[in-house]
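RECORD TYPE: inverse folding
INPUT: structure tokens
STRUCTURE:
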């Protein structure tokens, strides 16, 4: 079964780039009769904003990108999130919890497995020690990065420590991407990256691999900003002996000036677009075309038609432009197509 997921961090409003990732993941699952999951990646507790999970779910449901599996009412309450106004009655959580802060023991177990097999090690270097190390490397005009000081030290399990992945020397990986083909990496910039922080929370690298495997995700769609650390994830799958999902790194969304979409281009969150009077149909219609093209060259269509024709083969590797004038035009056409009860509902 095709199983996809959208895995945002609860650190702010739902950016239009995240919506495009959710849309493509949702469409791929729906086309193949699969399941679309929502997973909340809240391991960075310092950046977490209370109420954001509720907001994300509200926005996805307003857009019509309803998830089949994801956080339940009990899970939301467990992390102090409100549940009012959410439609979670049909949501299942057999692979849950779907909020990462509720899965800390799971990540710890797999980190220990890597240590026992010699693929990872405990590190008790303090932030001050690491900062001093970086300064000294800079003075020597070396590329900053962890020296591997704790690789061969027996750091006690009961002392404060992080867990680092032990990368081999001359680390080389060739990974497959459904959009970009084979990608070869030689000595990625991260040196022995942290997998488990000293506070017991995992980093993205460990959590995303463990969760995607345990939740049986078949296709991982995410932004191309994750290509730089893609070899770490590919390598972890090999270390655990797990089958890999299909990876697809989506192109960057640009403004009409050819630069990465940001606040200077206008409304870039779902809340801003909704407040400006845009219908969900118009927003999704516009996002469909940022990196994907209709086989008949059409631009204006219903989301059901997008699902019918969607495939990763038609997703481009090059960046796409989100045109707000075109979105405005689409909005006009979708409003005209509304039946009177629908129109009055908005």
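DESIGNED SEQUENCE:
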């Amino acid at each position: 079964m095709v199983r996809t997921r959208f895995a945002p961090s609860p650190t702010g409003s739902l950016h239009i780039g995240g919506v495009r990732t959710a849309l493509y993941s949702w469409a791929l699952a729906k086309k193949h009769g699969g399941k679309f999951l929502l997973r909340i990646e809240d391991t960075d507790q310092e950046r977490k904003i209370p109420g954001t999970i509720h907001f994300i779910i509200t926005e996805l449901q307003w857009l019509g990108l309803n998830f089949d599996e994801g956080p339940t009412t009990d899970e939301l309450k467990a992390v102090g999130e409100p549940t009012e106004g959410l439609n979670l009655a049909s949501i299942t959580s057999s692979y849950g919890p779907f909020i990462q802060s509720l899965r800390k023991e799971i990540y710890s177990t797999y980190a220990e497995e890597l240590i026992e097999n010699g693929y990872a090690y405990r590190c008790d270097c303090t932030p001050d020690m690491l900062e001093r190390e970086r300064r000294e490397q800079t003075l020597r005009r070396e590329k900053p990065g962890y020296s591997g000081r704790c690789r061969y030290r027996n750091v006690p399990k009961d002392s404060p420590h992080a867990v680092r992945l032990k990368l081999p020397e001359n680390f080389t990986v060739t990974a497959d991407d459904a959009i970009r083909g084979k990608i070869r990496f030689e000595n990625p910039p991260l040196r022995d990256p942290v997998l488990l922080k000293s506070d017991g929370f995992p980093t993205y690298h460990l959590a995303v691999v463990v969760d995607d495997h345990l939740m049986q995700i078949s296709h991982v769609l995410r932004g191309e900003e994750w290509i730089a650390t893609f070899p770490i994830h590919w390598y972890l799958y090999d270390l655990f002996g797990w089958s890999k999902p299909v990876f697809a790194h989506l192109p960057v969304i640009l403004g009409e000036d050819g630069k990465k979409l940001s606040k200077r281009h206008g409304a870039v969150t779902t809340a801003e677009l909704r407040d400006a009077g845009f219908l969900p149909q118009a927003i999704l219609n516009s996002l469909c075309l940022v990196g994907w093209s209709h086989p008949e060259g059409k631009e204006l269509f219903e989301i059901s038609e997008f699902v019918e024709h969607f495939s990763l083969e038609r997703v481009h590797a090059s960046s796409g432009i989100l045109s707000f004038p075109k979105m405005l035009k689409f909005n006009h056409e979708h409003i005209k197509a509304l039946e009177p009860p629908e129109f009055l509902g908005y």
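NOTES: The first helix runs from residue 16 to 31.
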